[in-house]
Amino acid sequence: MKSESLDVKKFQDQQLKDELASLQKKLFDLRSQTVTEKVKDTSQFSKTRRNIARINTELRARQSAAKK
Asked: Pick from 56, 61, 43: which is nearest to 3 by CA?
């Protein structure tokens, strides 16, 4: 089950931000595809949203740790 997940703890902050931007663009593209055409793999929505959440969680944890 972990084959699709990202190991975000190994990334640096800038890499996380870049990956977050690309995943948000991918999610936008997936949503626009649902309007214009049929999406073949609908599981990509949840996988992309979960990866975005993983990155946001890691960034937030790093911000919290930096304040201490």
From this structure: 43
